[in-house]
Specification:
Two copies of one chain form a homodimer. Chain A has 350 residues and is of the alpha/beta class. Chain A has 14 helices and twelve strands. The first copy, chain A, binds a DNA duplex (30 and 30 nucleotides) through helix 2 and helix 4.
Chain lengths: 350, 350
DNA sequence: GCAGAAATGAGGAACGTACCTCAAAAATGG
DNA sequence: CCATTTTTGAGGTACGTTCCTCATTTCTGC
């Protein structure tokens, strides 16, 4: 009737409590045969470890370090705020978070932060960073000290990171491409692609996915070379105005990163607001406003709240050497249009 | 440095442990002045009750009853399976689930199930059911006995349910409408709407949202009256074939419920597969296959795993009289196309 | 078959909270 | 000021697990 405990397992397996404990916590000094016997008793009784009691007894609390670039990107800010909320919630289950910011372009500052993290103080690290040799080395060091490392938002596939929390950028680009193609049904003409920078792995992969789909399925639409703005509105104005003037047949605009406000300003000035199909990434106050105003047709997004909670949960699971619930941690590539825009209030309630 | 405990509160407030306990658990026999003193100490030290320890001490485990119609709907089956997975996970935090099925049309069977639930045995109830007087009465009885009730998937707004876990059907319909309109860019003609039954609140609201958008924004598309199939493929065949023959100008098909296989069969027989814009609801093996095959342009869905976990979490929070993390429990209206189709494996790993 | 190593048992303390009892102190009313 | 009631204190046990020590048993190789 009632839930079986370790005592029941001990009785069922015909061993002592100490042995059950050794098996359950993978401590050394138990014969293979005994391990099997205990595991069979566990299976027979359907024993599930009471995590609450376990954590209580461990008396552990996990300090997780999260590293985020200190750019003025709205997505990063939203994520930072989501992380703080997630941390407040996670505090109830003995997980605390140390949120560190590094200047966006200063990878040595990042490396310095990572170098300062010690296994006796930090139980796990999540980071959003570009994949460079410096970062790779730092991650290798952390892993070698047994600190789990999770890539956040942007994957670091060629490092030894334990897990990636975020969406598949290539698939996100394909999704953007498909919507662009379908929204441009019956039209032929050119598609302008705007990015902050093509240095970041995300942008490259999105663009690759986008191009694939356009080429395969929407041959009447021609995708132009990427305009890189490096965050400067003027850069976007100049390059895009030139394209719009000369090309003549621009039907769609794909924003790989930010620049929604600058784009709206330019189009408004030209009296062309709402004339193109515009697709962007990430749900921020700017993209939200643009969706509501009808200047933006769709946003491909990942849920920052989910991202934040997932990062902390995965780190905790790794720290406790527990399995991960893949279904729960898998982030969806969300398609947001005006009609399914979630309510603004992202302020968690406590 | 370390988290404050009840002992710290007692010291800080200058009272005994017993008094702190009385205040924290709202037990009687404490002067207002003392209550204030304790609460101030709590605030000063930033004390947060260790829920794990509290639950352990309480020795409580919550049995939640979940009621689902026993239809042959794939969505219901997927949800049932997601619920079982969620329950396995929730077992780790002392929450178990009793999954009850009732014959889809037999509301008296449902009422009988609900009537059998007693407060001493069941800590909460989640149910997916139409809103009828019988159901309303049963819910009122449960609530009056202090059992929290959560509407699952389909809301019961005129009952005293504590919470609704699911998406806003009206907004989902608007989302479907917008996509339909945009995917039909440049076309004019008719849109066929197919439903299992228009008795269910979900279908009605979806249709209402869909119509609103089509009327407002896509006047060149004319939405035809709903075809009700009551789950019978022949009904769909007859009614739809007639429409396709006579109307001539059918450009889009909107499936409010199931019927994807029957639709594909009909269109294939007529050699018209892929000629219309088709939009449906819920991600099931059938809609998944149709998306992959390209017979279905988009699916408006809610995540069954999220739905299941959310239902159990909300019930638990209600049972413990704890606040709900709105951000985490808010379900997104998902737009799924072939490119952002999540991987099939919905089998949780344990 | 014996020494040494490996495996197991027995028992206890601790984690933070809930909940109980009984006694002592403080407040209250007359 | 006394009797009565209300409030508070002190101390204990329990929840299920972790982790520790020390003793005992069982294996292993020679």
């Amino acid at each position: 009737m009632t839930r079986p405990t370790v005592i029941d397992i001990a009785r069922e397996a015909g061993v002592s409590l100490a042995t059950v404990d050794r098996v359950l916590n993978a401590r050394p000094g138990v014969r293979a045969k005994t391990i099997t016997a205990v595991n069979e008793a566990v299976a027979r009784l359907g024993y599930v470890r009471d995590i609450a009691a376990a954590n209580l007894a461990r008396g552990r609390s996990y300090r997780m370090a999260v590293l985020l670039p200190d750019s003025d990107s709205q997505f990063t800010e939203t994520l930072a705020s989501a992380l703080r909320d997630a941390a407040t919630l996670a505090a109830a289950s003995r997980t605390e978070m140390l949120l560190l910011r590094y200047p966006a372009e200063d990878l040595h500052a990042l490396a310095a932060h990572l170098a300062a993290l010690q296994a006796d103080d930090i139980a796990g690290v999540a980071l959003m960073a570009p994949e460079t040799p410096v970062v790779r080395d730092a991650i290798r060091r952390l892993r070698s000290e047994g600190i789990p490392v999770v890539a956040l938002g942007s994957d670091l596939p060629n490092t030894a990171r334990d897990h990636f929390v975020g969406i598949d950028s290539h698939a996100a680009g394909r999704t953007a491409g498909t919507l662009m193609g379908k929204f441009c049904r019956g039209l032929s003409g050119q598609i302008v692609v705007v990015a902050d920078s093509m240095q970041l792995r995300d942008s490259i992969e999105r663009r690759r996915g986008f191009d694939e789909v356009m080429l395969e399925r929407f041959p009447s639409l021609k995708v132009l070379p990427t305009i890189e703005t490096h965050g400067r509105a003027e850069a976007l104005h100049e390059a895009l105005a030139a394209r719009l003037d000369t090309a003549g047949g621009v039907v769609g605009i794909y924003l790989l990163g930010s620049g929604h406000r600058a784009l709206a300003a330019l189009l408004r000035a030209r009296g062309e607001l709402g004339r193109h199909v515009v697709i962007g990434h990430e749900l921020t106050p700017h993209t939200r406003a643009a969706l509501l105003a009808g200047h933006l047709d769709a946003v491909i997004a990942q849920n920052p709240g989910h991202l934040a909670r997932s990062a902390l949960r995965v780190l905790r699971a790794k720290a406790e050497r527990q399995p991960i619930d893949e279904g729960q941690e898998r982030l969806r590539i969300e398609v947001v249009i005006r009609e399914n825009l979630p309510p603004e209030s992202y302020t968690a309630t406590f």
